[in-house]
Design brief:
Order of helices and strands: HHEEEEEHEEEEEEEH
Shape: globular
Radius of gyration: 23 Å
Length: about 190
């Protein structure tokens, strides 16, 4: 009996201590000593801003989220896309009506704040409805309405025509880290 106790006691003590420590680390402290709750309600997740005039949406930044390599995001961190059925020479947008409801054109009035993107590559194109749309290397830019949080790329590869765009205007088709490519079945 003493032998069994000596074998089982150390692992039991270790597991008890581990459970105690991880229980204390389950959330961030709210200042009152109790952990802050994690948002469990999907409605509590940040959504893509819907106001096209929001200054954060009008800015463009180069970012490197996850394993896709450098790509363009707006000032709120949402992925910016290009559409292969558009034209870059001359710049022309063919995404109108229902398409433009799902794929919101990136619009801006005035100078667009840029971070990590060559200003010479950024321009505008006048859409069929008369509004101006931002372009990168001639490609009209869009945001995907189904991207629910910054950095999400839910629109990548949709209809084999929608892709996140790199800071130099190329499309991102696959992961940059080849060791992860098989995990995504790309």
């Amino acid at each position: 009996m003493n032998r069994i106790f000596r074998r089982l006691a150390p692992p039991a003590v270790f597991l008890t201590a581990l459970a105690s420590l991880t229980g204390c680390q389950a959330g961030t402290s709210s200042g009152a000593g109790s952990p802050a709750p994690y948002p469990m309600d999907p409605g509590a997740m940040p959504m893509m801003p819907t106001d096209d005039t929001d200054p954060a949406k009008a800015s463009l930044q180069a970012a490197r989220p996850f394993d896709l390599g450098p790509m363009v995001v707006d000032g709120s961190g949402y992925t910016v896309y290009r559409y292969d059925r558009d034209s870059s020479t001359p710049p022309r947008s063919v995404c109108v009506e229902a398409c433009a409801q799902q794929w919101t054109p990136v619009r801006s009035s005035g100078e667009i704040p840029l971070t990590g993107i060559d200003r010479a590559l950024v321009g505008k194109v006048t859409r069929a409805d008369g509004s101006d749309q931002v372009t990168l290397a001639g490609w009209p830019l869009y945001r995907y309405a189904q991207d629910r949080m910054p950095g999400e790329t839910a629109g990548q590869g949709t209809d084999r025509a929608w892709f996140p765009i790199t800071p130099d205007g190329h499309k991102i088709e696959t992961t940059q880290d080849t060791w992860r490519a098989d995990a995504f079945r790309l």
